[in-house]
Amino acid sequence: MRNIELSEIKKMEKQARENGDVISLAQGYPDFSTPWQVVEFVKNHLHEAVWHQYTLAMGNLKLREKIASNLNEEGGSYSPEEIIITAGANAGLMATLLSCFQPGDSIAILCPTYASYFQQFKIAGIIPIFIPLNEKNWSLDLELLSDRINAHKPKAILLCNPNNPTGTLLSKNELLQIANIAEKYNMLILCDEVYSFLVYDNKEYFSLSSLPEFKHNFIKIQSFSKKYAMTGWRIGYICSSKKIIEKILSVHDLLINCAPSVSQLAAISSLENGEKFVNYFKEEFTKRRDLFYDLIQDLNEFLFAYKPQGTYFYFIKLKKNYENFTSQLFNVAKVAVVKGNAFGPFYDNYFRISFAKEPEVLITAVERMKKFFTQLTP
Ligand SMILES: Cc1ncc(COP(=O)(O)O)c(C=O)c1O
């Protein structure tokens, strides 16, 4: 049997859902409903047999045309043949790892980063080359990145931008420098952009997909999950050059055949009608980010966190050592969070929370944490 475990995030979420009185800040998903216009659109078309059947393995053409048109409005040059509709970003990344790499290949990865990547690497037999972010403010150390790539010559670099769990947003300049390094070492760049819609403080999101000169080695992994509050529909996409997409398509077909047709229908509508809802979601997330930051200032004797530039996570540093911190917090305070070392091997003294929750839930969670810390001696 292979040693692939359920990710720490999903384990904590499961435990939390099995215990009614636990507040879960573990798994990160918007607690909003999918925009009602999307739901109505699906209801109105659900009787059409075409949505009960397989689409092409690549996905519905109208959806791929819409995605290509949006990418090209931002400067890209994608055709619908260079896009695969996936069952969310995770399935897209898994198909990419299994099709573009051989067991034993290495991929550079910034860390801390999204827990599932480590397990996905394991499945594909990929060796991670860790490039730790600066613990000071979770910024990228480009010199370290360049040195590590020069030393290990990985086949690719995987970026999560903005980064789960630190909220680090890579700037256009940083991405261009990474692209130049990738060019020099003939590496692929995989970029998980599921939180690209959620950057704060009027910061601009930049994607290498807007520069056609990088298409030959850039793979964009996107999702409708977070942006349109559609996590349960399991829908996303990847785009790249035709040559790469053809490779990925064969594995995608073997893994899932095609993304759920009814969810592709919903995705068409979310692109047509979703933007005003996304603006509302962003406003709410901004309020929650600021609220949570203010709330935890009362706990600064025990913990510390930087305000994220994007995503809905805080990656929080414990100022003292606590044994089995997340289990104790779960059992005693009834708050589920995810332990830091789920996001990379250097983060025992950290934990992650998702603030994609109603303000009252965040207030109660922090009250419980306050009580917990004041009663606990390290
Ligand atoms: C960075 C990152 N990538 C991918 C996913 C999964 O996205 P999807 O629902 O599209 O599979 C998540 C979910 O938490 C995530 O945080």
Write the layout of secondary structure elements.
Blueprint: H1 8-18, E1 23-24, H2 36-45, H3 61-73, E2 83-86, H4 88-100, E3 106-111, H5 116-124, E4 127-132, H6 142-152, E5 156-160, H7 172-185, E6 188-192, E7 218-223, E8 236-239, H8 242-256, H9 261-273, H10 275-296, E9 303-304, E10 313-318, H11 325-333, E11 335-336, E12 338-339, E13 350-354, H12 359-375
Parallel strand pairs: 1-11, 3-4, 3-5, 5-6, 6-7
Antiparallel strand pairs: 2-8, 7-8, 9-10, 10-13, 12-13
Helix pairs in contact: 2-9, 3-9, 4-5, 4-8, 6-7, 10-12
The protein binds pyridoxal-5'-phosphate (PLP).
Task: Determine the number of helices (DSSP H or I, runs of at least 4 residues).
Answer: 12
Strand line-up across the major sheet: 2-8-7-6-5-3-4
State Rg. Answer: 21 Å
The helix/strand series, from N terminus to C terminus, equals: HEHHEHEHEHEHEEEHHHEEHEEEH
Structural category: alpha/beta
Mean pLDDT: 97
- Residue ranges: pLDDT <50 for 5 or more in a row? none
Largest sheet: 7 strands, mixed
Beta-strand fraction estimate: 5-15%
Q: Name the helicity range.
A: 40-55%
Ligand roster:
pyridoxal-5'-phosphate
- Which word captures the global form? globular
How far apart are the first and last residues' alpha carbons, in Å? 38 Å
| Number of E-state strands | 13
Concise description?
This protein has helices at residues 8-18, 36-45, 61-73, 88-100, 116-124, 142-152, 172-185, 242-256, 261-273, 275-296, 325-333, 359-375, and strands at residues 23-24, 83-86, 106-111, 127-132, 156-160, 188-192, 218-223, 236-239, 303-304, 313-318, 335-336, 338-339, 350-354. It is built from twelve helices and 13 strands. Bound molecules: pyridoxal-5'-phosphate (PLP).
